[in-house]
Write a structure and sequence with these properties.
It is a single chain. This protein has 123 residues and is an alpha/beta fold. The protein has one domain: 5'-nuclease (Rossmann fold, 3-Layer(aba) Sandwich), CATH 3.40.50.1010. The chain has helices at residues 6-13, 19-28, 36-48, 53-60, 70-79, 85-96, 107-112, and strands at 2-4, 32-35, 64-66, 101-104, 118-121. Strand 4, helix 7 and strand 5 form a beta-alpha-beta unit. Helix 1 (6-13) packs across helix 2, helix 1 (6-13) runs parallel beside helix 3 (36-48) and helix 5 (70-79) crosses helix 6 (85-96).
Length: 123
């Protein structure tokens, strides 16, 4: 299973510059997951930008939703590598749930946690 970072979903939903590359990744990988932390973040942007709810709901339901647990928070506190605690939480969730890869648009994240999980940097 591949864990999809929130920035990839936001790229697609908000139709940003790298949306096409992100859509291609999502089409090619059928077994994909996001965390409930990602759900919250995406919904913040949906509400902020007053996006149509139903297409976003259908899109989000195409992913497995993984919980973020207190053990993830403990792993993140122990392994946090500065600048973005949320990254550490997402990586912890992916590792605990047995994801084989972590896909992101975040260059710094892609370098921080490579000893913990295979990271695909989408360009």
């Amino acid at each position: 299973m591949i864990f999809i970072d929130a920035n990839i979903l936001l790229e697609v939903i908000l139709k940003r510059v790298r949306a096409k590359a992100c859509e291609q990744l999502l089409i090619n990988d059928k077994n994909k997951a996001i965390s409930t932390l990602t759900l919250d973040l995406v919904m913040y942007f949906v509400e902020r930008d007053k996006l149509e709810w139903e297409p976003v709901k259908i899109f989000l339901e195409s992913f497995s939703w993984l919980p973020v647990t207190d053990s993830d928070a403990q792993w993140a506190f122990t392994n946090f590598k500065g600048d973005d605690f949320e990254d550490a939480l997402q990586v912890a969730c992916a590792i605990r749930e047995g994801c084989s890869r972590f896909a992101t648009l975040d260059g710094p994240l892609s370098k921080k946690y490579t000893e913990n999980i295979a990271i695909d940097l989408i360009r």
